[in-house]
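Example protein
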Amino acid sequence: MVMDKHVCPYGLKSKDLLEQQGYTVEDNWLETREATDAFMQKHGVETTPQTFIDGTRIGGYDDLRAHFDKPLPDEDETTYRPVIAIFACAALIAFAVTWRVEGALLSLRVFELFIAFGMTLLGLQKLQDVESFSSMFLNYDLLGQRWVRYAYIYPFAETAAGVLMISGALTWLSAPVALFIGTVGAISVFYAVYIQKRELKCACVGGGSSVPLGFISLTENLMMVVMGLWMPIRVYLIG
């Protein structure tokens, strides 16, 4: 479908996939609603685009990917990709900022900024849909199950603590917040995963997460605990 106010993204993806596979594509545009309806009726299909190879109908974009053994990931399949991407970006940003400010890559500040940026980015993911996050979070967080409002406060607390740690301001506030939410989170994850042996998805990257609750989630919380303990020490020792 190629209309004044709509260009079908799956049509563009199908064309690109075919070209990647070495095909010369005859791209037939459906430029009106009437033309689209007539096409679907003619071929007995309910969606566009439709790909034909040597006169044989392959189907829509998903069917085309399957034809080339490139199926889309299962939406219910668990993956660590989202949290790995966030931690990787946090690390790169930490290195970039440290290099810009201190002119060095290996520094204690890299570790501090890595955790702080990680907290901020993870908090941002949760803040996109607090309602959805809270529903998933309440599946396993022990404090949230006793005080539901905590599930709504958590994303704001994590993000605020991360931002304050980046700036180095109000350590008297950011450190206890990180220590508290990290400790409660670590205990909750450990209890759900290693004692109850439950298989859950982690709300660490938001309510739509497909990240399994487990070692990564526990590590995230332990890093907050470390920062909560270290930041006051840093202020005392370094200033």
Notes: The chain is about 65% helix and 5% strand. The chain has a mean pLDDT of 91. The two ends are 62 Å apart (CA to CA). The first strand starts at residue 2 and ends at 3.
